[in-house]
Specification:
There is one protein chain. Helix content is 57%, strand content 12%. The chain is an alpha/beta fold. The protein has one domain (3-193): Rossmann fold (3-Layer(aba) Sandwich), CATH 3.40.50. The chain has a 5-stranded parallel sheet with strand order 2-1-3-4-5, sandwiched between helices. α2 (53-66) links the parallel β1 (46-49) and β2. α2 packs parallel to α7 and α4 packs parallel to α5. The radius of gyration is 17 Å and the shape is globular. Bound molecules: D-altro-hept-2-ulose 7-phosphate and zinc ion. Residues 51-54, 119-121, 124, 127, 170-171, 174 line the site of D-altro-hept-2-ulose 7-phosphate. D-altro-hept-2-ulose 7-phosphate is lined by residues 51-54, 119-121, 124, 127, 170-171, 174. Substrate binds at residues 51-53, 64, 93-94, 119-121, 124, 174.
């Protein structure tokens, strides 16, 4: 296959997946927005975490909440748990990489907070342990997964929101995840500031 055809296939596959997710994930994403707005307007905060590309997504999302999305508004309380290299290296070195997020959820999480847990496989152990810590601290979980949801899909409660992208390729799942996170930012702004 030539390179242009190969790239063209990425567009075709992504469009098909986006159309499918439009039908299946719009309603659960609205539930995620409600959970985020309820937390943020009741003195809660948003914790976000993930590995690799999902780490980038978590910090991207936190930046849009603390800074701004499309409109000026008050800063919103959000922290990405994958950004502090001193915490990551100290906890990773002293206790193991599996604990790098749960240690921070245990340090920072309060009842009423929300953990946005991002894992395309649903099987990253440090994200799983962060969800366990969130459950033990009455922190609601919004999980962004793919590949059937993995172990994370099995451990979520009915208070949590599961946004599982029905695809097996990490790159496609990540592309939907960033759309979902942007849709959440837009939904939060619409709830707080009114429709554009
Ligand atoms: O961005 C990519 C691949 O597109 C990678 O960096 C990817 O995020 C990493 O392999 C992660 O460790 C995968 O973890 P997860 O999504 O399965 O939790
Ligand atoms: Zn990637």
């Amino acid at each position: 296959m030539d390179l242009i055809a190969r790239i063209s296939n990425h567009f075709r596959d992504a469009v098909a997946l986006f159309e499918h997710c439009q039908d299946t994930l719009s309603a659960p994403t609205a539930a995620a927005v409600d959970a985020l707005v309820f937390s943020l307007t009741n003195n809660g905060k948003i914790l976000a975490c993930g590995n690799g590309g999902s780490a980038a997504d978590a910090q991207h999302f936190a930046a849009e909440l603390v800074g701004r999305f499309e409109r000026e508004r008050l800063p919103l309380a959000a922290i990405a748990l994958n950004t502090d290299t001193s915490i990551l290296t100290a906890v990773g070195n002293d206790f193991g990489y599996d604990r790098v997020f749960s240690q921070q959820v245990n340090a920072l999480g309060q009842p009423g907070d929300v953990l946005v847990a991002i894992s395309t496989s649903g099987n990253s152990v440090n994200v799983i342990e962060a969800i366990e810590a969130a459950h033990s601290r009455e922190v609601r979980v919004i999980a962004l997964t793919g590949k059937g949801g993995g172990k994370i899909g099995q451990m979520l409660t009915e208070d949590d929101v599961h946004l599982c992208v029905p695809h097996d390729r990490t790159l496609r799942i990540q592309e939907v995840h960033i759309l979902l996170l942007h849709a959440m930012c837009d939904g939060i702004d619409a709830q707080l500031l009114g429709d554009l």
